[in-house]
Design brief:
Distance between the termini: 25 Å
Radius of gyration: 22 Å
Helix content: 25-40%
Bound molecules: uridine-diphosphate-N-acetylglucosamine, phosphoenolpyruvate
Number of strands: 28
Structural class: alpha/beta
Largest sheet: 4 strands, mixed
Shape: elongated
């Protein structure tokens, strides 16, 4: 088993470069299936396990995919299969994003039901409601969702009960090849939605309004391959901003886009962190003392749920009592128990947690419960007394490229080891 071992106490200094966004590249790769002629060239692609997984899904579906030097080339011009089986969807929920493209291209899509995960039950009813409004017959059974339409999908008005990111993306992709105009109301406004719309438009689609609460898609009969560069990862950027602040360091987060990070910047400034916009990113300078604040996660432009656990790590160092309320996912507090193992003083009260920042964090062996929890526990390890060992790194690898190397380059005392290697070293120490 692999572990990250971090020893607390070092201030971070220097420059760290942000990768392309995981949550932008996954829907863009799914969208590349819509091109019935020409290749798509996708640049600034991070080498994450989720990216390898979605590439496998595309290959299974009969697309040709290469991934070299942070560029993916997709040729989806051959006839595509219709089914994304459970073995892929189980590894990564975002596999469900191929459904809209397959339904639009083939008139039929069969995708394994993603099921729940560590952060909540995560249903996909809003995706299916959109497909049904466009004329698809959707059946759920034997662990699969089957959606089929006679002829082309038809443009429709879809009102989303909640501005779901994935549902907005899936409906947007399906609507590009529908007959007539689709209007998605109360849709998600995340920067990743805008990135997907830009890619679709480069493929020949007619998508307007991405980034606002209403998106209009005028259907076209065919899409072609296109060139696209993925936006920088605002959550990776935010994670390094917290790393700088928590250690009282001074770090330039290169590639961070201030407009994508406005809620995080505002809340960190409220805590007393200095954030300076520079030409190529954000400089973050941690104060001697952090102030306690309250945070509520919300759809964009509200505070992102994907930064909730990292901010919990930061608030555990603030003077006074803070509260975080999670409104996006119903069960995204699994990391609280792990923070408690590090002497974190946190109480869960319904959908909120109360954090007392006065107690000294102590190094401990902790398990990552999900992707962002993995990063957050490592952030706490940067300031805990002694050694923190973080396990279940498969979660970390879904969303962070070379996380420990990047922290190490900024001055952290951190390494990633294989438990077998570690026990050999211990054995060697005993024997010699
Ligand atoms: C790959 C990707 O981009 N993942 C992001 C995406 O996930 P994802 O697209 O899955 O998140 P959604 O915005 O769809 O989900 C938000 C909430 O809506 C609920 N819901 C969603 C769809 C639906 O049909 N019915 C329903 O009830 C979910 O259970 C959840 O409670 O947005 C989340 C919210 O910003 C982020 O945390 C994830 O990192
Ligand atoms: C929850 C996340 O991702 P996913 O939707 O892929 O699980 C995340 O990026 O924090």
């Amino acid at each position: 088993m692999e572990k990250i071992i971090v020893r607390g106490g070092r201030k971070l200094n220097g420059t760290v470069k942000v990768e392309g966004a995981k949550n932008a590249v996954l829907p863009v790769i799914a969208a590349s299936l819509l091109a019935s002629n020409g290749k798509s060239f996708i640049n600034e692609v991070p080498t994450l396990s989720d990216v390898y997984t979605i590439n496998e899904v595309l290959r299974y579906l009969n697309a040709e995919v290469t991934f070299e030097n942070n560029q993916i080339v997709v040729d989806a011009s051959r006839e595509l299969k219709t089914e994304a089986p459970f073995e892929y969807v189980r590894k990564m929920r975002a596999s469900v994003l191929v459904m809209g493209s397959l339904l639009a291209r083939n008139g039929h899509a069969r995708v394994a039901l993603p099921g729940g995960c560590a952060i909540g039950s995560r249903p996909i009813d809003q995706h299916l409601k959109g497909f049904e409004a466009m004329g698809a017959i959707v059946k759920v059974g034997n662990g699969y969702i089957d959606a089929e339409v006679k002829g082309r999908l038809r443009g429709a008005k879809v009102y989303m009960d909640f501005p779901s990111v994935g549902a907005t993306e899936n409906i947007m992709m399906a609507a590009t090849l529908a007959e007539g105009t689709t209007i998605i109301e109360n849709c998600a406004k995340e920067p990743e939605i805008v990135d997907l719309a830009n890619f679709l438009n480069a493929m020949g689609a007619k998508v307007r309004g991405a980034g606002t609460g209403t998106i209009r898609i005028e259907g076209v009969t065919e899409l072609h391959g296109a060139h696209h560069s993925i936006i920088p990862d605002r959550i990776e950027a935010g994670t390094f901003m917290v790393a700088a602040a928590i250690t009282g360091g001074n770090v330039l987060v290169q590639g961070a886009v201030p407009e994508h990070l406005s809620s995080l910047i505002a809340k960190m400034e409220e805590m007393g962190v200095t954030i300076i916009e520079e030409k190529d990113g954000l400089r973050v300078i941690g104060p001697e003392k952090l102030k306690a604040i309250d945070i509520k996660t919300m759809p964009h432009p509200g505070f992102p749920t994907d930064m909730q656990s990292q901010m919990m790590a930061l608030l555990l160092r603030a003077q006074g009592t803070s509260m975080i309320t999670e409104t996006v996912f119903e069960n995204r507090f699994m990391h609280v128990e792990e923070f408690r193992r590090m002497n974190g003083d946190i109480k869960i009260e319904g959908r909120s947690v109360i954090i007392n920042g006065e107690s000294q964090l102590q190094g401990a062996e902790v398990a990552a419960t999900d992707l962002r929890a993995a990063a957050a526990l490592i952030l706490s390890g940067l300031v805990a007394e002694g050694y923190t060992r973080v396990t279940e790194l498969k979660h970390l690898d879904r969303g962070y490229v070379n996380f420990h190397q990047k922290l190490s380059a900024l001055g952290a005392d951190i390494e990633r080891i294989n438990e077998i290697t570690e026990s050999l070293v211990e054995e060697a120490n005993v024997n010699f």
